[in-house]
Design goal:
By secondary structure, the chain is of the alpha+beta class. The protein has 13 helices and twelve strands. The strands form four sheets. The chain has a four-stranded mixed sheet, sandwiched between helices. A three-stranded antiparallel sheet has the order 1-3-2. A hairpin with a 3-residue loop joins β10 and β11. The longest helix has 17 residues. The protein is globular.
Length: 317
């Protein structure tokens, strides 16, 4: 786990000397803001962070603030460096063993407690804060946020840790025999794969699976295309050997090398189009259900599946 305190230069206000008047002045004039009543951050730096990093800063700040509580759920996954389906607005905390939280009116701003049993074996102390271990984190996400959210995080963890096999994950589920959410956890494990590239790609894969389109004969994830002996492209999905689907994340367009990113993207797409592939570029918003309960991505794919592939690609299919 990163040392998020150093990463974001979080200031523990309880450890400042009484003679330190600069920090108090910075908070008073808005140069610094409080993430919790005990932790502050440079305001300009915080505003410049993407939403997921703001959430990581808040989660670590809560971890620095609480005395006995343990950061859990999507917030814990975020601190471990795993992707999550959504950006949580509040930080989930659990208390060890059979301790119970006080009334919600006493909870610090920006955090919430859940009263559920947390074994000491499932707690890790890293960089001065307490956070749930990976397996317990997956279980809590499955329980609180659902199977899709759990698959997103497990996919991310498996991509980063090749040793995290499905068998190993299933074995971990056996250690939570009486916990709520273990059924959803097992389902998420079954649906997980080791080579998903992003949260939105995982989401699209599950939508494809749920759609059960009879025209789909094959789906390859992170399909590889060799351009030359030392250069190749990976695509999110190759469907029926001729339809390429790319889920467009927004983060790459925030790059300072935007022109280079766009040029590389154009060259990549030209490479596939020149060979006769259909290329579908899908925005994450097109994975959402519209007012009619339909998914635009599935509609676009259905229309493409009605077309006839080029003869040389038809033979491959």
């Amino acid at each position: 786990m990163k040392n998020w305190q150093e990463e974001f230069q979080l200031v523990n206000l309880t450890k400042l000397l009484h003679s330190d008047t600069e920090t108090s002045a910075a908070i008073s004039n808005g140069q610094m803001i409080k993430l919790t009543h005990e932790v502050a951050i440079n305001a300009e730096k915080y505003r410049s962070l993407p939403a997921w990093d703001k959430a990581a800063a808040r989660a670590f700040a809560v971890g620095m603030t609480v005395d006995k509580a343990v950061v859990a759920g999507q917030s814990a996954a975020r601190l471990w460096g795993y992707q999550t389906l959504t950006v949580e607005k509040t930080v989930l905390c659990l208390l060890p063993e059979r301790l119970r939280s006080k009334s919600s009116k006493h909870w610090p701003s920006g955090m919430r407690y859940k009263d559920r049993y947390l074994s000491l074996r499932d707690i890790r102390e890293v960089h001065g804060i307490r956070v749930t271990g990976a397996f317990r984190t997956f279980l809590d996400i499955a329980l609180d946020d659902g199977v899709v959210a759990a698959v997103v995080t497990i996919d991310s963890a498996r991509r980063q840790n090749p040793s995290l096999t499905r068998e190993k994950l299933m074995h971990s589920a056996e250690s939570f025999p009486r916990h709520r959410g273990v059924k959803a956890y097992r389902q998420a494990i079954e649906l997980s794969i080791p080579n998903s590239d992003s949260a939105q790609e995982t989401r699209a894969r599950l939508i494809l699976r749920e759609a059960k389109l009879p025209e789909i004969q094959s789906v390859k994830v992170q399909a590889r295309f060799d351009q030359s002996h030392n250069k190749y492209f990976l695509v999110d999905f190759l469907i029926n050997e001729w339809i390429i689907v790319e889920i467009d994340g927004r983060s790459k367009y925030d790059s300072p090398e935007l022109n280079e990113v766009l040029m590389a993207e154009r060259d990549r797409e030209k490479f596939f189009l020149n060979q006769g592939y259909a290329v579908l570029r899908i925005d994450p918003k097109q994975l959402d259900l519209n007012q009619d309960g339909e998914c635009e991505f599935i509609g676009i794919l259905k229309n493409t599946l009605q077309k006839t592939p080029p003869e040389h690609l038809k033979q491959a299919a």
